[in-house]
Design goal:
Structural class: alpha/beta
Strand content: 15-25%
Radius of gyration: 21 Å
Largest sheet: 8 strands, mixed
Helix content: 25-40%
Distance between the termini: 42 Å
Shape: globular
Length: 454
């Protein structure tokens, strides 16, 4: 099983090289009693368990996981621990009001530093470095959006910089300016997930791997290895929620390519010396980082949504999308050569119908969290801390944030879901092409926002 798991991503390969063979922990050994049963040993489930055990060390917390801790998006993502929340500030304000939107954004900024504090306290060696994010503007239309984003946000969140300052941070081609935020840390995500799992165990939590949840109720979780009866349960399955809560999220794939460690001559031009993560203001999302061992890791969307929300290992790899990502990375950094790229991988993330993450606990003890749209590294920590406060009945400001209790409406049934999600992906590609031709903001993008309820 080890070689298969190590091939999931560069990050998993590095974990194995660190001396962690990714060997599964023992599965559930029959029917079990617990105070809290968490389904899913990704970031959301592990943070929930961790915060519960810090809040009450005497709790019996059981985490059940079909694969191994950090198998899914938590171990395969692009390594941004950022203050990004999937619903925009404007959308939060329209739905919840300005004060609630401000509170949500402040909590997201704070949770980035909270993750860093746990990393330091627990001694989790995950290449943590808080260098912020640089979002480049490389076309006139992108520069328009960059200016609007900086004007909409507060000065403590996003600043607009000119071409010279932007290029000094990220030495990419055709840079006209950038927006810059300090609220992001670069990480090695699989090391964070694996280290967090060990921290949960040190605090008394039980992680049962190789255990598939078949159904989740308010007071029990039925698995293929037995039933866990608990006073509270938590569904922390993100993209895989589509199989447990029908149409709650659409699993959409994000794919990544990575290079070998690149020489100093490359980084003398490319920059990224301060641990910055980077993107640009195109519509079809891309994201990148310079790793601790001087690789360029670069990912993005573009892979299709699969009929009936299917998730299969074969979907993790799409040669067409990988080729597009390598071309996009080379467009940003022309010094890259084809043989520089050594790794390629991918996996699903969960997209709710309204692009609005949610967390909550019903009166009878059924908890849930997710819908991060790829912005889950830090958001999952906030979710775990919030769920812990709700389950423990603590008076905590986190429980008053506007995403608490939020439930997105369900996605449309097939074939409408397939048509809508894939049309959205296609429209983003067309919008970027339109802007390259017209040098003006896309009218297609406005259609996309209306179609997806943004």
């Amino acid at each position: 099983m080890g070689p298969t798991l190590s091939s999931l991503s560069l990050w998993h390969e590095q974990v194995v090289a660190d001396g962690d063979p990714l060997a599964p922990r023992p599965p559930l050994s029959g029917d079990t009693e617990a105070d809290v049963c968490v389904v899913g040993a990704g970031y959301t489930g592990l943070w929930t368990a961790y915060r519960l055990l810090r809040g009450d060390p005497g709790l019996r917390v059981v985490v059940v996981e079909r694969e191994v801790a950090g198998f899914g998006a938590s171990g395969r993502n692009g390594g941004w621990c950022s203050a990004l929340f999937p619903a925009s500030a404007a959308a939060l304000t329209r739905r919840h009001g300005a004060a609630a939107a401000d509170a949500m954004r402040a909590a997201m900024r704070a949770t980035v530093d909270d993750v860093g504090a746990v990393v330091a306290e627990e001694g989790i060696a995950c290449d943590w470095r808080k260098g912020g994010t640089v979002a480049l503007a490389r076309t006139p239309a992108q520069l328009v959006r960059a200016r609007a984003e900086a004007a909409e946000s507060g000065a403590d969140e996003i600043a607009l910089v000119g071409a010279t300052e932007a290029t000094a941070l990220v030495g990419a081609s055709n840079v006209l300016g950038a927006t810059v935020t300090p609220h992001c840390a670069r990480i090695q995500p699989a090391r964070l997930a694996r280290g967090l799992a060990r921290a949960v165990e040190r605090r008394g939590g039980c992680i049962a791997e190789g255990t598939t949840a078949l159904s989740i109720g308010p007071r029990q979780v039925e698995t293929d290895r037995g039933v866990v009866r608990a006073r509270a349960t938590v569904r922390a399955t993100e993209a895989w929620s589509a199989g447990l809560a029908a149409r709650s999220v659409a699993p959409v794939y994000s794919l990544i390519v990575a290079t070998r460690p690149l020489p100093a001559s490359f980084w003398d031009v490319a920059g990224l010396a301060g641990g910055q993560t980077f993107t640009d203001h195109r519509h079809l999302i891309v994201y990148g980082q310079r790793t601790a061992d001087d690789r360029l890791v670069f990912g993005g969307r573009g892979a299709p949504y699969h009929w009936r929300s299917q998730i299969r290992p074969a979907f993790d790899r799409d040669p067409r999308v990988f080729a597009g990502l390598r071309a996009a990375a080379t467009g940003l950094f022309p010094a890259l050569r084809p043989d520089d790229f050594t790794h390629a991988w991918g996996g699903p993330l969960g997209i709710p119908r309204d692009w609005h993450a949610g967390v909550g606990l019903t009166p009878d003890g059924a908890g849930w969290a997710g819908g991060y749209v790829g912005d889950g590294v830090a958001t999952s920590h906030l979710a775990g801390a919030t769920l812990a406060a709700l389950i423990l009945g603590r008076d905590d400001p986190l429980t008053t944030l506007p995403w608490v209790g939020h439930r997105s409406r369900r996605w449309e049934p097939e074939p409408l879901r397939w048509l809508l999600v894939n049309a959205g992906l296609r429209l983003m590609t067309l919008a970027d092409g339109e802007e390259r031709l017209t040098r003006r903001p896309s009218v297609v993008a406005a259609s996309l926002s209306r179609a997806l309820g943004g």
